[in-house]
Design a protein that fits this description.
Elements lengths: L7 H11 L9 E3 L5 E4 L10 E4 L1 H10 L34 H15 L23
Antiparallel strand pairs: 1-2, 2-3
Length: 136
């Protein structure tokens, strides 16, 4: 989600979303016997409405949500990944975010290459799975 500086309602919604806790405390309850009940926001397909945890299991699941120290939470893949051998040569000259402009550029590239044909990656059939002894 992107919000401009003058879109106060959108900015507030974005801030509330990014600072919300991982677990809703309103749906969390501790029973007298010890297990922790967590009421699901929407029931599972099988009709389950609550999940029950032992206290130690619940703490372990919460701890799994905490990121490791000194780990970058933004991960890059492909050309922008750290080990990519041509990364130093790639310079970002523009970031096009307007959907209409993106559609025009992609339509132009498709027109130049011939409606969906990409010579660098020609289409191919999926690999055929042959199991030994199956066709004997």
């Amino acid at each position: 989600m992107v919000a401009a500086a003058d879109q106060r309602a959108k900015l507030e919604r974005l801030c509330r979303y990014s600072t919300r806790p991982a677990v809703s405390t309103e749906r969390l309850s501790l029973t007298a016997q010890g297990p922790i009940h967590y009421r699901l926001k929407t029931p599972y397909r099988d009709g389950t409405t609550h999940v029950v945890f032992e206290p130690l299991d619940f703490i372990a699941r919460l701890a799994a949500l905490v990121p490791s120290p000194r780990v970058n939470l933004t991960r890059y893949h492909g050309v922008f990944a750290p080990p990519y051998h041509l990364r130093e040569q790639m310079k970002v000259i523009a970031s096009i975010e307007d959907p209409a402009a993106i559609k025009r550029i992609l339509a132009h590239l498709d027109h130049r290459q011939g409606a969906g044909q990409h010579p660098e990656h020609p289409p191919r059939a999926p690999p055929q799975l042959v199991l030994p002894g199956l066709l004997d």
